[in-house]
Design goal:
116 residues, 6 helices
Length: 116
């Protein structure tokens, strides 16, 4: 139980760090947010918990493929925000991401990569 609480606290601290830095500097906040900090933490947690190397490698592999279809959201958000406001923009970006993910999954399936 202590280990689980420790994981929560460290992972939450990363999110808080990003939001606090972003308040002070758009660029530095974006840079830190773009770093794969959550993935690195997840890889560390899997290693510390003695998960098989194949499981750790698969996590990194699938993370790569799941990140690609999220990228259009980061272009759409600043374009939509002044037009729609925050909450409609956020909802629109979630929909855009889901559609991009579905289309991307169909595309990469042709190359033998199963995401769904």
């Amino acid at each position: 139980m202590v280990w689980l609480v420790t994981k929560y606290l460290i992972t939450a601290a990363v999110v808080v760090l990003v939001s606090e830095v972003a308040k002070r500097s758009d660029r530095l906040g974006g840079l830190i947010a773009a770093l794969p900090l959550v993935t690195v933490l997840a890889l560390i947690w899997l290693q510390v918990e003695r998960q098989p190397q194949v499981k750790i490698a698969n996590h990194a592999w699938y993370t790569f493929w799941y990140v690609v279809p999220t990228l259009p959201m980061f272009l759409a958000f600043p374009v939509l925000l002044p037009r729609l406001g925050f909450w409609p923009t956020l909802l629109s970006c979630v929909v855009i991401t889901l559609v991009c993910f579905w289309l991307f999954a169909l595309l990469v399936r042709r190359f033998g990569i199963e995401l769904l």
